[in-house]
């Protein structure tokens, strides 16, 4: 590991500077995760090892309360996890959604990839699979997450993510029943930048092998059973060693409808630079949801990278981490939202 971590803030200019491999890039200023991934690469590990170790570090450290255990309780007060990992050489993917009782969600996702022919497992069955694979079952609830849940109950269960239900969700906590007649959707989205901080991580080694991964505890006060964009291939992340990789963070219920990570990789395959690919992917969503909260990071197989974000109240810049041979340490970088 690094004896120290170098931190600086750089506003990206287009086009980007000279490429450098190997490369690790991840969403948000989660520097310890970057350091863990970079150390794995420098120690001879694969890009899959780097992505897994980086995301797992965030799960252990409960990055910003939005990754790992003890955060984002659902309507019942339970914390559940989503994660995925993708091999850009083989196009294999392992993913888990609505995972309960297991802290190392990205590790379970890799186990799905390596020990099954499936792509994704969800809910209680995913948890049982993890236990059978030797993962330790633990309570994901903490005093902090229970306090978040208690305060939400005291606030008449607001915000919530129900619509067209009775009784009025602004007054009661359910049980909810469908309205006889659907009403126009007046639900206000609560785009809190601290309730969507998925870690999305990309790793490219010296030989151009690419991997991507994600981990999150999802949306605070979500409806039980909700799975966001993070474990969805092409939405939360995508990797192809012939083109590059991308990872997204933000309002997953909106972003997953557009597969922004897949789109960005395909744009890079067609020759777009990573910054342009990221911005185009965000623009595609903005045409339909102008006020959505979201950002994306992109990197191609030469080691060029970029990022883009939608400008919303509270988010005028998006910060992310980079480590490559030019720095040999994690650097904090930023891009202006548009």
Automatic annotation (TrEMBL):
Organism: Sphaeramia orbicularis
Active site: 198
Keyword annotations from UniProtKB, A to Z: Autocatalytic cleavage, Hydrolase, Protease, Signal
Pfam families: Asparaginase_2 (PF01112)
Catalytic reactions on record: N(4)-(beta-N-acetyl-D-glucosaminyl)-L-asparagine + H2O = N-acetyl-beta-D-glucosaminylamine + L-aspartate + H(+)
Cross-referenced CDD domains: Glycosylasparaginase
Family membership: Belongs to the Ntn-hydrolase family.
Function summary: Cleaves the GlcNAc-Asn bond which joins oligosaccharides to the peptide of asparagine-linked glycoproteins.
A single MF term (Gene Ontology): N4-(beta-N-acetylglucosaminyl)-L-asparaginase activity
Site positions (Cleavage): 197-198
Domain of life, per lineage: Eukaryota
Protein name: N(4)-(Beta-N-acetylglucosaminyl)-L-asparaginase
EC number in record: 3.5.1.26
Signal peptide limits: 1-19
A cellular component term, taken from the record's GO annotations: lysosome
GO biological process assignments: proteolysis
Entry keyword annotation includes Hydrolase: yes
Residues annotated to bind substrate: 226-229, 249-252
Gene3D superfamilies: (Glycosyl)asparaginase (3.60.20.30)
Enzyme class: hydrolase
Keyword Signal in record: yes
